[in-house]
Amino acid sequence: DADVTQTPRNRITKTGKRIMLECxxxxxxxxxxxxxxxxxxxxxxxxxxxxxxxxxxxxxxDGYSVSRQAQAKFSLSLESAIPNQTALYFCATSDLQxxxxxxxxxxxxxxx
Amino acid sequence: SQQGEEDPQALSIQEGExxxxxxxxxxxxxxxxxxxxxxxxxxxxxxxxxxxxxxKHSGRLRVTxxxxxxxSSLLITASRAADTASYFCAMVGSGTYKYIFGxxxxxxxxx
Lengths: 112, 111
Prior knowledge:
The structure holds two protein chains of two kinds. Chain A starts with a strand and ends with a strand. By secondary structure, chain A is mainly beta. Chain A contains no helices and eleven strands. By secondary structure, chain B is mostly beta strands. Helix content of chain B is 0%, strand content 59%. Chain B has no helices and eleven strands. In chain B, strands 2, 4, 5, 9, 10 and 11 form a six-stranded mixed beta sheet that branches. In chain B, strands 1-3-8-7-6 form a five-stranded antiparallel beta sheet, with no helix packed on it. In chain B, a hairpin with a 5-residue loop joins β9 (85-93) and β10 (99-101). The radius of gyration of chain B is 13 Å and the shape is globular. At the A-B interface, β4, β5, β9 and β10 of A face β4, β5, β9 and β10 of B.
């Protein structure tokens, strides 16, 4: 099984709909991250969490919210999806020392 | 934006040649890492260099770090077609341990 699992892998949704992307990890890490990837822009940080009670905004948090349900689970929600949120979304975890990040396989989200 | 900048954005070389990509950043770092991404899949860790180090080697990879210039470079020697991928630097913030990624370099190695 993968260390970091994202569901769904692909999703097409309509403008204005609420959608949740889920992430679970088996690494036992406290630190979890959500990024979006757009062509030519690399990965941009949306939210990050350093433990269950710690949630922090990243560079581009507007239009997104997160929930850390447990150490192993970190979900990202788009309350009212818009077309410019069409992107590839990645969840990642890291150890406390920040020596390596482990990524899920990504969720390709299309908002029409 | 805190995001790191990489150049070149794209690089095309022949098999056997060396590939060099550069990363510049703005924040204070604990360490800097390089990752590889194949065709929109998840990123995979390649190598880490700490802020008090200047150079690291791992197989065909050589990483340098200049904290005074806030820059790093990744050299892949004797490249192979299988090295074709996108490469990203990631800065781990000093004290924050937050990962901030660069914009990436798309490498194409021609057989």
